[in-house]
């Protein structure tokens, strides 16, 4: 935010390989950078430059934005019904929380719930890129708690 030196890596939601548990912090970090970019651009559009508001907004929207982003992209790109594509050319399977002992970001059946409650409906809806972008803006701008 505000002119920091951030190194960007390509975010590609392909299902070439299964992701290992040790890769999840890097995936979360890259999604955090994406959330910062979204907030920064949205604040530029509405001409608000308050850094405290930006930080609070990133803290609020990071998790819902990450889950929404991987759900939409998985629904659009993946043919396998029981995977979740993540941003490092990989995927996690529905039952990943049973195989990983570390309490990472896919604990509490996040992959399973995302597949059942988001990815499957998004596949049926055939959500468009423009609709996904608008939903991301709504997720960022919505101040309620999840």
UniProtKB/TrEMBL annotation:
Keywords of the record: Receptor, Transcription, Transcription regulation
KW Transferase (keyword) present: no
Species the sequence originates in: Trichostrongylus colubriformis
Top-rank lineage group of the source organism: Eukaryota
Database matches in Gene3D superfamilies: Retinoid X Receptor
This protein's name: Nuclear hormone receptor family member nhr-5
Classification via PROSITE patterns: NR_LBD
Residue ranges that the Swiss-Prot or TrEMBL entry lists as coiled coil: none
Presence of keyword Cell membrane: no
